[in-house]
Amino acid sequence: MSETTEDLETEEPIVETPDVPMAFGAPLVESTGGQLVIHPARENWLLVASAILADGFFMCIDVTAVDYLTFQGQRPLPAGVAPERFELVASFINHARAERIRARVQIPEDDPTVGSLSTLYPGSDYLEREVFDMFGIIFEGHPDLSRILMPENWEGHPLRKDFATGAIPVQFKGTK
Amino acid sequence: MAMTDAQAEAPAEPAAPAIEHQMATEMADEVHEGQLHILPRNHAVMRMSEVQMAEKANAPLEDENDQTMLMNMGPSHPSTHGVLRLMLEMDGETVVRSKPVVGYLHTGMEKTGEALTYLQGPTNVTRMDYAAPLFNELAFSLAVEELLGIEIPPRATWIRMLMSEMNRISSHLLFMATNGMDLGAVSMMIYGWREREEVLRFFELVTGLRMNHNYIRPGGVAADLPDGWRDSVLRLLEILPPRLEEYDILMTGQPIWRERLQGVGVMRADEAIALSTTGPVLRSAGVPWDLRRDMPYLAYDEVEFDVVVGTYGDAFDRYAIRLNEIRESMRIVRQILDKMPKGNYRAADTKVTPPPRARIDESMEALIHHFKIFTEGFKVPEGEVYAAVESPRGELGCYIVSDGGPKPYRMHIRGPSFINLQTLPHMMSQGLIADAVAVISSVDPIMGEVDR
After folding, report:
1. Which residues in chain B are closer than 8 Å to A151, comparing Cβ atoms?
2. Does residue A10 surpass a pLDDT of 70?
3. Intra-chain end-to-end CA distance of chain B, in Å
4. Residue A51: its chain B contacts at CB < 8 A?
5. Which chain A residue shows the shortest CA-CA distance from B43?
6. What's the start-to-end Cα distance of chain A, in Å?
7. Considering only Cβ atoms within 10 Å of each terminal Cβ, which end of chain B, N or C, has fewer?
8. Of 3.40.50.720, 3.30.413.10, 1.10.10.10, 1.10.645.10, which CATH number belongs to B127-410?
9. Chain A to chain B, count of Cβ pairs less than 8 Å apart?
10. Are A115 and A46 contacting, i.e. CB atoms less than 8 angstroms apart?
């Protein structure tokens, strides 16, 4: 990361865990293939995002989420980050330095809310609507948080792991 | 929640980052406010649900002379590229506000992806952007290979590049056809399809299918290039340039065509970045960003090509960029023909690669191995990864979370069409309804990828 991120770290009121490297005031880890991932706390999400924006990551390239309800394996999270059911995954691009960074925010099941990026990154509009539609995560401050892919009157959030999938009756399947 | 407060307390003076990019520095000055204020036409985004829209549209008019009209366009309108629906607020012929309504093709492909093994995955993702299926397979395969930590042989890499560039040509030719048709150059539809058909014949020769190839798979490609592939490519490289010249005569130089497109759907560079656009839409605004050059994958750092960039950010620039990207792709294909290495077309890693067909007849173990790979699939180490490629429409990303099993725990595709659609209300604002058609067409959305 650039030198400026260190300056930003010191400005932000975030408890640092000693042995974990930090960036934008959040623990930084190298994920598969050396991709940089930060783990901001949910309360700091917009603060961290504005620091990311201030560092020249002008484009929010992707916002998605993962429901870890039935995850079998280990969840290697840095020290100080408690695993929660939902995880918001947002990726940013710095065009000038040709860099990417990804943020993973833990979101608890009993209060699936998180601040919306839409003021900082207006391009996250549809992506956050999709996450709301598919996972039921509520983005506070989003200008139009409505379903985008499913019908407006749909019940449930299909990409949650406890959303019932199954076969629908097909008319001619059983005929010989 | 104190999040809005926290945002207000964000450092008022962001320390100036070391950025050489001029435009980036200009934007950095205002950065602490967020990017929303960059969008001068944000008021043109309609924030109304479909139910509200229906109620309002049916309500009686209070004053007949002082009303805007709510109008519906699509979802099955010939110029909306399949099943895009637009809710429009019109003032006479002028679009005041608009909202794209999507989801008509939603079939839960990301959910389906969680039920398919990594080997079956490409058959699923290839159906998303059906005009550029090989890019979906490529993004998916790159993500899986990153998780597996395997290297694919050089020949597989170059075959993937060849197929990608051919697919970029066919996809842009399809754009030429539909764009022409949308704007009234109806014969162009036949010309574009005629040329695209030639490219699809090459795909049929190599993959056996014209679309939805399932050709690029984790570990390499499904089959080596067949005999005669080189002649087939050379023939295409011979046919296409004069045909593109014809397009120039038919469209590029035509005053009517230029009048129809120039200055329509204009988008500034900072707007395009704030709205997360990628691909020709971003480049038309003058941002020289192409993942093939700026974050090279496969072997794009070993070929020479130019990134085509626009100046005015209008529909004509987006048309011209795609036309010239066909030429650049042909330039890359020529280099691939010279540099195509010999060797294996898939990784020799027995974990992910089924045994060669000949060995199945002579070895029981090979038969069992083959059977297990195709029924159970192979296990992929735990982890999460994002891989991105430059599809004809922009950055096509694939995010995979693996729990160590033979199926992805979560598979997400970042479809460039989906995000690029956000620009429509901005670009249509205060334009004529007839220009709205030109704007939709110039974004070149593929609804299969939008809705997934």
Report:
1. 103
2. no
3. 33
4. 10-11, 14
5. A143
6. 65
7. N
8. 1.10.645.10
9. 202
10. yes
Return the structure tokens found at B40. 């001068």
* Mutate: best of A50, A72, A107, A129, partner B, most B CBs <10 A: A50
What is the residue extent of each domain of chain B? 127-410
Query: How far is the C-alpha of B368 from the C-alpha of B364, rounded, in Å?
Result: 6
- Whether residue B103 and residue A149 make contact (CB cut-off 8 A), yes or no, is yes
Peptide bond into B75 cis (omega under 30): yes
H-helix segments, B9-98: 22-28, 50-58
Considering only residues 145 to 174 of chain B, which have any Cβ-Cβ distance to chain A shorter than 8 Å? 146-147, 149
Considering only CB atoms, B35 lies closest to which of A4, A121, A147, namely A121
Instruction: Give backbone dihedrals phi and psi of A97, rounded to 5 degrees, phi first.
Output: -100, 0
Task: Give the one of A12, A64, A120 whose C-beta lies nearest to B34's C-beta.
Answer: A120
Give residue B23's pLDDT. Answer: 43
The whole-angstrom distance between residue B352's C-alpha and the CA centroid of its chain comes to: 28
Whole-angstrom distance, CA of residue B46 vs CA of residue B37: 17
Residue in B294, B329, B321, B394 with CA at minimum distance from that of residue B161: B329
CB contact under 8 A, A98 and B295: yes
Please answer yes or no on whether A91 and B395 come within 8 Å at the CB atom. Answer: no
User: In chain B, count of helices (H) and strands (E)?
Assistant: 20, 8
Task: Tell me the angle at which helices B229-247 and B315-339 cross, rounded to the nearest 10 degrees.
Answer: 160
Cα distances from B197 to residues B167, B204, B305, in angstroms, run 12, 10, 25
Q: How many Å is the Cα radius of gyration of chain A?
A: 18
Q: Which of residues 361-390 of B touch A (CB under 8 A)?
A: 382-386, 388
Residue A7's pLDDT is what?
47
Please provide residue B147's backbone torsions phi and psi, each rounded to the nearest 5 degrees.
-65, -40
Separation of alpha carbons B269 and B285, rounded Å: 5
Residue B21 contacts A where some CB pair is shorter than 8 Å: yes
B225 DSSP assignment: P
Query: What pLDDT was estimated at residue B7?
Result: 41
Given an 8 Å threshold on Cβ–Cβ distance, is B384 in contact with A31? yes
For each of chain B's 452 residues, which pLDDT tens digit applies? 334 444 444 444 333 333 334 444 444 444 457 888 788 888 888 888 888 888 877 777 666 666 788 888 878 776 667 788 888 888 888 998 899 999 888 988 999 999 899 988 999 999 998 899 999 999 999 999 999 988 899 999 999 999 999 999 999 999 999 888 888 888 888 999 999 999 999 999 999 998 889 999 998 898 889 998 999 999 999 999 999 999 988 888 889 889 889 989 899 898 999 999 999 999 999 899 999 999 999 899 999 999 999 999 899 999 999 999 999 999 999 999 999 999 888 888 778 888 888 888 888 888 888 888 888 888 898 889 999 999 999 999 999 999 888 999 999 999 999 999 999 999 998 889 888 889 998 998 888 899 88
Per-position b or e across A136-155, b if 16+ CB within 10 A of its CB: bbbbebbebbebbbbeeeee
Phi-psi region of A141 (alpha: psi -120 to 50; beta: other; left: phi over 0): left
* Domains of chain A and any CATH numbers: 4-140 (3.30.460.80)
What sign does the dihedral A71-A77-A82-A85 (CA atoms) show?
negative
pLDDT of residue A6: 47
Contact B11 A8 (CB under 8 A): yes
